[in-house]
Amino acid sequence: MTSITFLFPIALAVLAYVVYPSTYDPTSTTSCLILPTDASWPSIADWDNLNATVGGRLIATTPLASACHDPNFDAAKCNAIKKNWLHPLTHEETASSIMAPFYQNQSCDPFTPRSQPCELGNYVTYSINASSAEDICAGIKFANMKRIRLVVKNTGHDFLGRSTGTGGLAIWTHNLRTSRVIPIYRSSSYNGTAVMLGAGIRGFEALDIAHKNGLQVVTGFCPTVGVVGGFIQGGGSGPLSSIHGMAADQALEYEVVTAAGETTVVNPTHNADLYWALSGGGGGTYAVVISVTVRAFRDGVIGGASLSFSREGVGIDTVYNMFGHLLDLTPSLIDAGIQFGWLVTRQAFVLGPLTAPGFTEEHIRLALKPFTAKLDQERIDYQLNTTSLPSYKSHFEHHLGPLPAGRYLADSMVGSRLIPRHSLIDSRTALVQATRSITENSSAFVVYIAANNTMSGTKQPIADNSVLPQWRKAAVHAMATLEWEFCLPREDMMARQAELQKSVIPQLRRALPPDAGTYLNEAEVGNENWKEDYFGDNYERLRQIKRVYDPTDLFYVEYGVGSDAWYRAPDGRLCRT
């Protein structure tokens, strides 16, 4: 048996809870989950037995940045960690590290003083490097029996802290990397080519698997995001959404381990209610997904573009007039199967990347002509670059690469709202004014991501699913973003987080209908209206399904369905409400 009796992780766990003591006696009730400082915490022998059960794949958490703090300081290692801290791949290869700075909580990062203690804080205490359904089942049973918080972690890409938890045992699905192309998948819902992806497959890997077989599959904008976890289970918006739909619309079947420790297949005809919930109702909530099989499409030419101009010498009214003109053009672009994003900062106006399946460069320039004509009329000096590349992967590499890392960093705090198609007309003035106010008077900027999210004609979901209904009426997803600067005091960043929550997002809300909705995967922390915004009319049905498959609410994530069955105590443990 491989022992996991590491003194350093245990010392970290104890230190974390001594520094932040509870104001009550958690041992006086069984309504709370336990922490390492509790007398009922599993013994070293218990953990060793679990480790043996999972073939030596139990990992005691040592925070990634521990080399930056005494007594384990190592200058060379620390410098390397600091250099790469903002890059997602740095965190993905560890069982416990996460990317959201708010939830990292500065308990152990490379930017705080060497003398500051390295604590576990919000990080899980142990993880199982799952290689099979049996490993997952063992973790579920252990957490259930010992009253320990269970966490599901894939890559750690999550703005709402759903892949970590104080005192938790994580099921780390990152190394479930099996994949298979299915030339003819047959079911009552679909007959055609499909691809099975293990839970650990990330966007860049899915791109490669599909590309080698002359196919496309729907992925996200960031290539290091796991396809099978919160991305597809939260809906999943990406560059191909205008022409193929959202990621959840492509799901043919899931292989899962339930809260009862049972492995089963979930599809539109078998466990149909669970299929509905998994396809858009939020990750980490209903079961642990081992793999998903998705619809695949024949690969082909993808047009692309980017356009930008400097604001230097361009009047502020002109800049936001151009923003309004792009709102006007959005419906015709997305109806043509184009997906694109744009933003205004205090320095520049940027459109792109634009994804246009089947388009030549000439067709792209023609589609953008109404906008570029306005720029020419105002004598704005802009740069327009167009491409028409032979495959989705080559397009992605050019406009969203380099692969595998991509261009997105783990240094953001975000909040978002969906913009209904009718609001592009009804709320045009309010949207322009809100964007101008946010950009010119706050620390934030707003990224607008346009896609045709309606499902009609030949573009249909595999089956009815729980994607937030507001997505089907939305033309644009507006995401407000602020930078988290690690070199500044955490108090300054918390003030910036409060600015996002109390000033920036409310401005977007006021410009839009109250029921516009929010993309769960890019939602803000602290939203009191999370049930309505993130799940809408689906919430009650999702809650009923969770009661069937997870009657004890073992699977908990913040802002997830059923999460109000728990509250977080002062020392971080979960307690029953």
Descriptive notes:
Residues 120-299 form the FAD-binding PCMH-type domain. The protein is of the alpha+beta class and 577 residues long. It folds into three domains: 7-175 and 568-576, Uridine Diphospho-n-acetylenolpyruvylglucosamine Reductase, domain 2; 176-300 and 391-407, Uridine Diphospho-n-acetylenolpyruvylglucosamine Reductase, domain 3, CATH 3.30.465.10; 302-390 and 408-535, Vanillyl-alcohol Oxidase, Chain A, domain 3, CATH 3.40.462.20. The protein is built from 18 helices and 20 strands. The protein has helices at residues 7-19, 44-53, 75-84, 88-92, 101-104, 133-146, 203-212, 227-233, 241-244, 272-278, 316-335, 361-377, 392-400, 423-426, 428-441, 490-511, 530-535, 539-549; strands at residues 58-60, 126-129, 150-153, 169-172, 179-186, 191-198, 215-216, 251-257, 263-266, 288-295, 297-298, 302-310, 339-344, 348-357, 383-389, 412-420, 445-450, 474-483, 566-568, 574-576. A seven-stranded antiparallel sheet has the order 15-12-14-13-17-18-16. Helix 11 crosses helix 15 (428-441) and helix 15 (428-441) runs antiparallel to helix 16. It is globular and about 75 Å long. Mean pLDDT is 95; it is low at 1-24.
Keywords:
18 helices; 577 residues; Uridine Diphospho-n-acetylenolpyruvylglucosamine Reductase, domain 3; disordered N terminus; FAD-bd_PCMH; oxidoreductase; signal; 3 domains; Uridine Diphospho-n-acetylenolpyruvylglucosamine Reductase, domain 2; FAD-linked_Oxidoreductase; FAD binding
- Which segments are poorly predicted (pLDDT under 50) over 5 or more consecutive residues? 1-24
Distance between the termini: 40 Å
Q: What is the name of the CATH class of the largest domain?
A: Alpha Beta
Radius of gyration, taken over Cα atoms and rounded to an integer in Å: 24 Å
Q: What would the average pLDDT be, to the nearest integer?
A: 95
Q: What is the CATH architecture assignment of the largest domain?
A: 3-Layer(aba) Sandwich
